[in-house]
Design brief:
globular, Rossmann fold, two-stranded antiparallel ribbon, alpha/beta, 7 helices
């Protein structure tokens, strides 16, 4: 069984223009042209973001068929990807995943700008914290279907907390590194091997 449909979920204040999303999109297009790729621009509301994602993948193949989907997520997108993977019983790759965004994003309530388009503003509403709480997946039932790439040098998230959350998963723990995974190219082969892409 090969992964024929791949979803990529970006992080907070990020977009499909992120370096990691762009690199993955290019590799999929070049080497796996038969794979369906989708990296949506997620709205600030976690509830609306996941409603958009679930509507978008509703016709995608389940893991019980000859085709299957997988999800990759970075930072807040890793938190979302975990939720999606639990719902869809699919493989997940999480890149420096947010573990408790309801706690961490409380200080970001207010007007924010997009990293890749600073002129694009959005308002992170207080009620979004409750929406994040509602998406907390609890103990992971499909942990063996998850690859976590975690940088000990992450300046935003605690690598110890990430490692504890994904205990039992296949963990690629990096000495040094940073939140953006600036050395992402070095991990692409492992990620692609885990995803088992094929059109």
């Amino acid at each position: 069984m090969r992964t024929t449909h791949l979803l990529y979920l970006h992080g907070f204040r990020s977009s499909p223009a992120s370096a990691k999303a762009q690199k993955m999109a290019a590799v999929v297009q070049r080497d796996y042209p038969g794979v369906t790729w989708w990296c949506p621009q997620l709205p600030p509301s976690p509830r609306l973001a996941m409603a958009q994602v679930m509507a978008g993948v509703s016709a995608w193949p389940s893991a019980t068929e000859f085709q299957r989907m997988a999800v990759v997520g970075s930072s807040l997108g890793g938190f979302y990807a975990t939720w999606v993977a639990e719902k869809m019983a699919c493989k997940a790759v999480v890149l420096n995943p947010a573990v408790c965004p309801a706690r961490d994003l409380g200080r970001h309530i207010g007007e924010q700008s997009n990293w890749h388009n600073p002129g694009e503003k959005f308002f992170f509403q207080p009620e979004f914290i409750d929406e994040l709480h509602a998406l907390e997946a609890g103990p992971l039932k499909q942990i063996q279907h998850c690859l976590a790439v975690i940088a000990m040098g992450d300046e935003v998230l605690d690598w110890r907390e990430m490692t504890a959350r994904y205990a039992g998963a296949r963990v690629r723990l990096l000495e040094g590194g940073d939140h953006a995974l600036s050395d992402f190219d070095e991990h692409l082969a492992d990620i692609l091997d885990f995803l088992e892409l094929g059109g």
